[in-house]
Automatic annotation (TrEMBL):
GO terms for molecular function: rRNA binding; structural constituent of ribosome. Belongs to the universal ribosomal protein uL22 family. Part of the 50S ribosomal subunit. This protein binds specifically to 23S rRNA; its binding is stimulated by other ribosomal proteins, e.g., L4, L17, and L20. It is important during the early stages of 50S assembly. It makes multiple contacts with different domains of the 23S rRNA in the assembled 50S subunit and ribosome. It comes from Flintibacter hominis. InterPro entries: Ribosomal_uL22, Ribosomal_uL22_bac/chlpt-type, Ribosomal_uL22_bac/org-type, Ribosomal_uL22_CS, Ribosomal_uL22_sf. This is Large ribosomal subunit protein uL22.
Amino acid sequence: MEAKANLKYLRISPRKVKIVLDLIRGKDVGTATAILLQTPKAASEPVLKLLKSAAANAENNHQMDPEKLYVSACYANPGPIIKRIMPRAQGRAYRINKRTSHVTIVVSER
C-alpha cells in the first residue's frame, strides 16, 4: 500500500527541486525529515511540508504504521512557465522565464 501527496505550482524550478528530492529518495520518513531540516536549499521547506502531508495521509487514510514508512518515490515535473520581459539596451527586450514545479512524494510501508 502506498500514500501520496502532491504540491502544484511551486514557484521554484524543477531542476532545483530535484536536487533536494534526490537526497531523500529511498530513506525512511524520520531520516528524510532530519535531512530536510538541515538542508540549506529554498526547496527543502516546501518538500518537508509535503513529506509530512504524505506521512499523515498514510497514517490517517490508509492506517499504515508511521514508524515503518519510507519515501518510495518522489519526483518534480515542470508546471506552467510565467513569462516576463526584461528591458535591454537599444529598445530590445529579453524574456525572463519564471518556472514552476508540480512535486509528488509517495510513501510506502517496509
